[in-house]
Amino acid sequence: MKLIRYSIIILATLILAWQIPSLYHIVSDTSGKNVFTYYSSIEEAFCSIDFDEKENKLVRSNLNNGKVYSETDFDSILPLFYYRQLLSDGRFPDSINGKAISTKEINASNFFYRYNAKDKNTPSIPIYTLFESFSGRVKLEMPGDVFRITNSIEFINPITNEVDQEKSARFMRVFEQSSFVFPARAAYGNPSTRKPYDEGYFIIDNKGQIFHLKMVNGKPFLRNTNFPEGINPVFIATQEPNDKSFYAFVFDDKNKVYIITTDGYKVVQIKTPLFDLNKDRMMVMANPLYWNVNILSVRGKESYALKASTKEIVDSLSILRPVEEDFILSYVLPFELRFKSGSSDYIKPFIKFAKIWVLLINVLLAISYGWFASNKNGKWPLFNTVWIILTGLFGLIPSIIFKN
Amino acid sequence: MEKALLYKEWKKTRIFSISIALVAIVLSAYIMLKAGRSFRIAGMEHLWDVIVNRKQFIFKELKYFPIAAGLCIGFAQYFPEIVQKRIKLSLHLPLNENKVVMLMHTYGMGVLLCVFFIQMLAFTIFSSIYFPFEFMLNSLQTIAPWYLAGFVTYMFVAMICLEPVWNRRGINSLLAIGTIYLFLLSGTPAAYEHTMCLFLIVSLWIFPFGLLSIKRFKEGKQG
């Protein structure tokens, strides 16, 4: 029976270690400041829109020299971001820093890409939709089948749930003629009809090579991108930008980010501030002159401005959150147990330990519990004492409740 | 003696057991008919797209059935035992009290296992007819924690009912709610894919908890 009692104490401890910090977060959490920043092609500096809590208004400023702008002036220093507003007001400049830029060019080169660690850490059904990339129609249409790729490529008809042998064999032949090594590790595409065109899938083979698969006029198109051997890709975000300048963002196991360009699958590194692809978020805001690469993490917001043509860093910015130590989470509760995370769709235990000093409190609690229990029962409760030293308050509560 | 005990459990719970089985059949039929309607109206290709790319789960109405079944069979089995402390009669049988409780548990778990297994089999067959293997696997990974929650609910109902002290029943109920909630944390299909073993261990961990309640009952604990 002792074992059952201990089992109940262990389970109750884990439930408390999950629920007490979670309730504490509900009553104590405050939202972090989210400052909009964008690299100005006019000022050649990062500019921001921040909320002034004292004045209770938005403040638009140049972060380099601190100059504050009115809303209208702010539109003018970020013409590549507010070009629609400037056009509507008739204020759009003929040239930006001596370079003539048309709205067509802005429309083509402007894009936003958001990466959330959840994009990678999410369960998925490995079934893919391969659109016809050259249908001649403006709107993409569903192809009438899906494919799976593990030890071979197979197309399945959703209506009959049967493999289309002829189409599968046709595509398989192309794979066999290439240097593709089965089984495929993963395939990454953008299976949406709401995009201007389709570039199919980027597939990582068993050797870590990246292949580009498309369907062109019903025929298979497969190319080895000759991705550099030293880079181990772990996630690919296939994009279809308006200017057709690149195919995809590639993330490697060293948290580095690359793009595969449409210029012969050339691989270009996109330099980012310190980035953990399993925890952080990345946002790329691009325009014809600069790419703003923002990393949002527990540290705060860190940004690079990259020259669009060369992807060289031209400026950087850090808006770091002050590290606030929460007394309860650092010195009272020995750890936090969570099963959900903002960076993963999977349910799995995540443990965050408090400061080492919390062990002092744990030991004090354990000795007090042991002293009271031994006074009452004449026997020192060894299991409970050790358990309270390890789990502190979370172990103490069930030890008291489930004492017999 | 064991057979007689199991027969007693059957006599006590047959209406509930049959009702659970009927609800399982009706619910499964409803879910499948509803899916069939979606096949006809939206078309299989669109439905596959919604399931694969938008992570919609077509058997989501099933989510709370296992918990309801566990509650139902648990109360049907143990509530009559605590009314006027009838469990005392069972404990006076020429059998070890732990064995008596374990036999009762085995009966309840057996009923749930039969219902859940048949229902799971029905969904597996249904999925394998209309969807590829990958979808079937994803569905099983999604519904498996719900079924585990059903077993866990049953075991906690036994633990709570057999417990002699009301305060402790309340605390056990809180522990039960916290534990069962663990199995229902996510709406994302197959979210428990990597941790199924861990949650299976948690379910097995709870299995003997009722024995402590029965020991406390036998000792006449008041607090």
Task: Please give a handful of descriptors for the protein shown.
A: about 400 residues; alpha+beta; 3 domains; 5-stranded antiparallel beta sheet; 4-stranded antiparallel beta sheet; 10 helices; B: about 220 residues
Topology, please?
The complex is a heterodimer of chains A (404) and B (223).
Chain A: H1 2-28, E1 36-40, E2 45-52, E3 57-62, E4 68-69, H2 71-77, H3 83-89, E5 95-96, E6 99-100, H4 103-109, E7 111-116, H5 117-120, E8 146-149, E9 153-157, E10 162-163, H6 165-177, E11 186-188, E12 201-204, E13 210-216, E14 219-224, E15 233-238, E16 246-252, E17 257-261, E18 267-270, E19 281-286, E20 290-297, E21 300-307, E22 313-320, H7 327-332, E23 335-338, E24 350-353, H8 358-377, H9 382-391, H10 393-401
Antiparallel strand pairs in A: 1-2, 2-3, 3-4, 5-6, 7-19, 8-9, 9-10, 11-12, 12-13, 13-14, 15-16, 16-17, 17-18, 19-20, 20-21, 21-22, 23-24
Helix pairs in contact in A: 1-9, 1-10, 8-9, 9-10
Chain B: H1 2-42, H2 44-53, H3 65-82, H4 87-91, H5 97-130, H6 133-162, H7 166-182, H8 196-206, H9 209-219
Helix pairs in contact in B: 1-2, 1-3, 1-5, 3-5, 3-6, 5-6, 5-9, 6-7, 6-8, 6-9
